[in-house]
Amino acid sequence: SIEVPEAAAPDVGIELFQLPWTSVAQECETTLAPAGIAWVLLSPAQEHIAADEWWASYQPVSYQLASRLGTRDEFADMVQRCNAAGVAVIADAVINHMTGQSEPGVGYAGAAYAHYDYPDLYAESDFHHCGLTATDDIQLYKNREQVQNCELVNLADLDTASPTVQATIVAYLKDLISLGVSGFRIDAAKHIPATDVEAIVSQLPQGTRIMSEVIRGAGEPITPDEYVTFGEVFEFTYARELTPPLENGVFTDPVLSDDRPQQVSSEAAIVFVDNHDTERGEANVTARDPQLYVIANALMLADDYGTPVLYSGYAFTDRDAGAPTDADGRVLEASCADAIGPTADLADGERTCVQSWPAIRGMLAFRAIAGEVPRMPGVDSGDAYGFEREGRGVIAVNVGDDMQRIEVPTTMPDGAYCDVITGGADAAVDGGCAGREYSISSGIASFDLDPGAAAAIHLGSRR
Ligand code: LM2
Ligand code: CA
């Protein structure tokens, strides 16, 4: 008999896009903790403009925790319940800017504001007026000054170098920490000088997790590398290199985790297949393409580079459409407890619920067993590709239009194994398999894969 190594708790997160706090709490308890997901990334919690589009969340009008996603009490209760379930909470901190509304208005929870005036928070002198472009809007991403001091799509740009602005932001972030939040995504971090982000986050308790969103752009002067001295960064290059081979079948193999010249070091990288912006933009593989989406997420979860963050959103036709709301504009509760996916035909507004897909749960189990050992060189076979995590797990995918056989050398023991992509986290059942079965013989794992199929076996999924 073989010894199954103890399952580690891999550091995998998930973005629950535009999900209300009461539902996030439920997901922590019913789907995220059972799947072994370590942290949840929320949508912004602060009060925002009164508008139906999802992106209203990214236009703060005050730092009250009162939004379409829920009240302060609901937020506090959610953080407690997630923490109790062992799921850390990462809040989305929109601190580069306030609203992009040129006309005065009243926010979702009643706060009055004008473009450069947020009573009790910020006044005109707290904002940049860059004076570098006709409208004060960013025009040239090759110009550092413009990117950081001008306005991103008319959003009133905070003077984040100002000590009073920093103090106001720090007070807001500390308020979230007082409710149990473990860290922050720094929204639009590229638009805030790294020195300013550092000055702000260095005033937070030691150990607060910081994940800066710095979208890498060819030829741009501001790079993610500037933000790694005080935290992690979202590495956009990962998906840009992961997904084209899924469409053209030409895999290049990064054998070592740090063999990715265009990317930050593995410890600093948060990696993803898509997020709420890229699924509406640059991502070429999203939940709209279920087979390739499973393949992409499976490869990411089997990989040895970075900290993966999954993405759980909702189907849409209109890129601006918000999640479904009630008559008061509150986002409706939704549960993924009974979801089974992937499925190609979600109605607009329906949640993708990736955290409940057997394939994703199976790959989280795979990572728990095999995620700590070296990633071995990849094997190509036509449009199929696969690799081993040394002695512990093997993954193989077929991105072509024809059935494909692929043989991956492995030091795992010979025998019959249950596939966790079709069989899920508990793939081995009563001497049989919940999904497909594959075998290892004479140190070769063999897979006959249908077009668009993936397969993964590990020491814990032996039949
Ligand atoms: C981000 N990261 O850096 C967020 O992830 C992204 O979702 C945000 O854009 C952006 N930065 C600002 O926080 C979204 C959305 C935009 C939307 C903004 C502001 O993708 O379309 O802009 O939020 O809500 C919208 C309109 C735009 C308008 C702007 C200001 O689309 O046309 O500009 O509001 O009213 C005049
Ligand atoms: Ca800025």
From TrEMBL:
<dbReference type="InterPro" id="IPR006048">
    <property type="entry name" value="A-amylase/branching_C"/>
</dbReference>
<keyword id="KW-0119">Carbohydrate metabolism</keyword>
<dbReference type="InterPro" id="IPR017853">
    <property type="entry name" value="GH"/>
</dbReference>
<dbReference type="InterPro" id="IPR013780">
    <property type="entry name" value="Glyco_hydro_b"/>
</dbReference>
<dbReference type="Pfam" id="PF02806">
    <property type="entry name" value="Alpha-amylase_C"/>
</dbReference>
<protein>
    <recommendedName>
        <fullName>Alpha-amylase</fullName>
        <ecNumber>3.2.1.1</ecNumber>
    </recommendedName>
</protein>
<keyword id="KW-0378">Hydrolase</keyword>
<keyword id="KW-0732">Signal</keyword>
<dbReference type="InterPro" id="IPR006047">
    <property type="entry name" value="GH13_cat_dom"/>
</dbReference>
<dbReference type="Pfam" id="PF00128">
    <property type="entry name" value="Alpha-amylase"/>
</dbReference>
<comment type="similarity">
    <text>Belongs to the glycosyl hydrolase 13 family.</text>
</comment>
<keyword id="KW-0106">Calcium</keyword>
<dbReference type="InterPro" id="IPR031319">
    <property type="entry name" value="A-amylase_C"/>
</dbReference>
<keyword id="KW-0479">Metal-binding</keyword>
<keyword id="KW-0326">Glycosidase</keyword>
<dbReference type="InterPro" id="IPR006046">
    <property type="entry name" value="Alpha_amylase"/>
</dbReference>
<feature type="domain" description="Alpha-amylase C-terminal">
    <location>
        <begin position="379"/>
        <end position="462"/>
    </location>
</feature>
<feature type="domain" description="Glycosyl hydrolase family 13 catalytic">
    <location>
        <begin position="11"/>
        <end position="367"/>
    </location>
</feature>
